[in-house]
Amino acid sequence: DAVKNSFAAKFSGATDVKWEKENSSELEANFTFNNASVSANFKLDGTWVETETTISADALPPAVTTAVNAKFPGAVYSKAEKIEKPGGKLLYEVNIKVNGKNREIEWNPDGSIAE
Questions:
Q1: Using CB atoms within 10 A of its CB, is residue 18 exposed (0-12), middle (13-18) or buried (19+)?
Q2: With a threshold of 0.85, does the pTM exceed it?
Q3: 82-101 as b/e: b if 16+ CB within 10 A
Q4: Dmax over Cα atoms in the chain, in whole Å?
Q5: Which stretches in the chain have pLDDT values below 70?
């Protein structure tokens, strides 16, 4: 109940909500919010952990796109997500294909690779 209450407060208006167990201490909701595909993780006590929103590659910050293209010339973008974490932390996960290999890398908004 704590998780569902926390979710309802943060994502009022979410539709097509599907819940799954992320791991032994977190639940993940996959849903539609503001016409976007979103997933959000919560600890079992209802504490919000992170939100991942699918975005188009065109919606990536220019610094991220520039960094990806410089580090991985010829990369083909397959998926991009904006990741929000507590404290206003923002990351971008970029899924690309380079030389036939799939890569999934998290970037800071300034174009540096997230640790």
A1: exposed
A2: yes
A3: bbbeeeeeebbbbbbeeeee
A4: 47
A5: none
